[in-house]
Design brief:
Blueprint: H1 15-39, H2 44-53, H3 57-60, H4 74-95, H5 101-130, H6 133-169, H7 171-196, H8 209-224, H9 229-238, H10 241-255, H11 267-296, H12 300-311, H13 315-323, H14 328-357, H15 363-392, H16 394-403, H17 406-414
């Protein structure tokens, strides 16, 4: 068992690496894989549907969360799933060379999603149990920043690398190399976090499958018995309704030819947009939001401000779709605006789940339920986004995205908030 004397480890030693490891596979599946499949000749509708469907484990993760308590500590599951995810990325790299690469690689990406979802459940448990409420609010910004750095590396640096490698070695070999890079990063993170994450204690609450199912039943019942829980669930799902559609289609819009309503950018150019213009904006927005909510608290006013920052910047993509500018700096400015708003506004959703949904007897499990539903709010709109985009065209699609932000504002105004002690 990973036990021993309780030793304090500063959050700066493990929060950045853990949330970077949380973000990398999620973004690889949600965004980078879409660009990869686009370059390999798969249609937008298929890309949007399948790369969204494989995200399902992040929604279902509460169902196996209680069974993690039967063995080892939360820390154990954090670093072992990081290493497992790295090994699976290596298999994805090899699968791209096969004739039926799409089906095989999608299957392997689904396994990565399961490993990643398990990792996230355990990591959230470490975070909630090692920090008090004030620390949670303070470091939630660093969570977002490091998660978003992973997003920038995945959607920016590695996409740029893929674009450059495509010129020399072709699409398949280029993306195989990139998948091996993902693999190496995840394995290194797993090895590092084996020492960096606080040990915590092994759970003694679940000793058998019977106890695990009993705990799961109690977790589910107590979750839905929470006061005004349905308002909270509506908030969690609707907050990302517009984002789930926009984020999935944006890189495909960037890549599509101008004659098709896209911007006709190369893979390398898309990498530069996310890696250069998006990087600083993302990190800045996330950290600023963390300090903003730690000073102001989660009130109706602050939540509305966060929701506004999260949703209004999608106007930038509507502008790009309508005007189709050729200047990379204009496109980059639009990306920076959206990334800053995303980084700033996403903190509101995380903190809402952490402080309004999770508290109680099953803090880790209920946080997993909340974050799982949060991903459902992303997954369902993403799955249909390709069909909607194909039907409407890119310009009308991004106008629709702006209309789709309205439910988020309504539920943010209506959702009850409990005062935190």
């Amino acid at each position: 068992m990973e036990q021993g004397a309780k030793k304090y480890i500063h959050p700066a030693q493990w929060v950045p690496s853990t949330w970077f490891a949380m973000g990398l596979p999620f973004v690889a599946l949600a965004t980078s894989s879409a660009i990869m499949y686009k370059n390999m000749g798969i249609s937008d509708a298929q890309i949007a549907f399948w790369t969204s469907l494989i995200m399902l484990p992040w929604t279902l993760k509460p169902l196996w969360g209680p069974f993690l308590e039967m063995y080892k500590t939360r820390k154990f599951f954090v670093y072992t799933t990081q290493i497992l995810t790295g090994c699976l990325f290596a298999l994805v790299a090899l699968s791209l060379q096969l004739d039926h690469f799409f089906a095989v690689s999608i299957g392997l990406l689904a396994l990565i999603a399961f490993s990643g979802a398990t990792h996230d459940t355990a990591a959230d448990g470490v975070y909630l149990n090692e920090m008090d409420v004030k620390q949670q609010a303070q470091y939630v910004g660093w969570q977002g920043a490091c998660y978003n750095i992973a997003k920038v590396l995945s959607g920016g640096v590695l996409v740029y690398l893929a674009g450059e490698l495509e010129k020399k070695y072709g699409v398949t070999t280029a993306w195989s190399i990139v998948m091996f890079v993902y693999a190496g990063i995840m394995v290194v993170l797993g090895i590092y976090n084996r020492s960096a994450i606080p040990n915590g204690i092994a759970s003694t609450s679940v000793h058998s499958l019977k106890e695990g199912f009993a705990t799961l039943k109690d977790v589910i019942i107590s979750f839905f018995q929470k006061e005004k829980i349905w308002f909270g669930l509506c908030f969690i799902v609707l907050y990302r309704f517009a984002e789930g559609q926009a984020i999935k289609i944006t890189p495909l819009f960037f890549k599509a030819a101008r004659t098709e309503g896209g911007l006709g950018l190369s893979t390398s150019q898309i990498g530069v947009l996310y890696g250069v213009f998006g990087a600083a904006a993302f990190v800045l927005g996330s950290i600023a939001a963390g300090y903003f909510v730690s000073n102001k608290g989660l009130t109706r006013k602050t939540l509305m401000i966060l929701c506004t920052f999260f949703n209004v910047p999608f106007m930038a993509y509507a502008y790009l779709a309508i005007t189709q500018p050729e200047t990379v700096y204009i496109i980059g400015a639009a990306v920076a605006i959206e990334y800053f708003g995303y980084g700033f506004g996403f903190v509101g959703l995380i903190l809402f789940i952490m402080q309004q949904i999770a508290p109680g007897k099953y803090k880790m499990a209920h946080y997993a339920f909340g974050s799982g539903l949060m991903n459902l709010g992303f997954m369902i709109p993403s799955m249909i986004s390709g069909f909607v985009s194909d039907y409407l065209g890119y310009k009308e699609f991004f106008i629709w995205v702006l209309i789709a932000t309205i439910p988020a504002f309504i539920i943010t105004w209506l959702v009850p908030l409990k005062k935190m002690e």
